[in-house]
Write a structure and sequence with these properties.
- The protein is α+β, with helices and mostly antiparallel strands.
- The chain has one domain.
- Helix content is 30%, strand content 31%.
- The chain has two helices and seven strands, in the order αββββββαβ.
- Strands 6-5-4-3-2-1-7 form a seven-stranded antiparallel beta sheet.
- α1 runs parallel beside α2.
Length: 153
């Protein structure tokens, strides 16, 4: 019993540290995220584009969508889409939706009907960390698009 509690606590601490690191990487990579609504990052050498859309801003959080895709997309290189909530007061960034899957729990029994990994939430945050590390390690050019204003007729 005590060993199970220790494992869960260590898992939680590792996930917390990962989310804190993701927040730092996002803020470093996108210092102007408070101003712009839409950015595209392109790594010419690797053919990867990352589209960043700000979906929602509140005083303490920002919800962004990250779409990564190779420029020459095909069915063999599908687009990866994730929504990340940045908690500015706690300085953490957490993947809340990935490929349309939301409300992912920290732990799952394995096997399960959805075939999630036992630590699916941590795996999703690790994917975000890897994407941000790749962006940081390679030269990306930023393109900003103005906010699209829609008029109802």
């Amino acid at each position: 019993m005590l060993q199970t509690q220790m494992v869960k606590r260590a898992h939680k601490e590792n996930t917390q540290a990962l989310c804190e690191l993701n927040y730092k990487k996002l803020v470093h990579m996108l210092p102007d995220i408070t101003v712009f609504e839409h950015m595209t990052l392109i790594a010419e050498d690797h053919g990867l584009s990352v589209i960043v859309d700000v979906n929602e801003r509140t005083p303490y959080t920002t919800l962004v969508t990250l779409k990564s895709c190779y420029i020459m997309c095909s069915e063999f290189s599908p687009e990866t889409t994730m929504q990340v909530r940045m908690y500015h007061d706690a300085k953490v960034a957490e993947v809340v939706v990935i490929q349309g899957h939301q409300r992912i729990r920290p732990h799952y029994a394995y096997p399960n009907s959805d075939m999630y990994y036992p630590d699916e939430k941590k795996q999703n945050n690790r994917l975000l960390a890897d994407l941000l590390a790749f962006c940081r390690a390679n030269k990306f050019t930023k393109t900003y698009l103005p906010q699209q204003i829609e008029f109802n007729e």
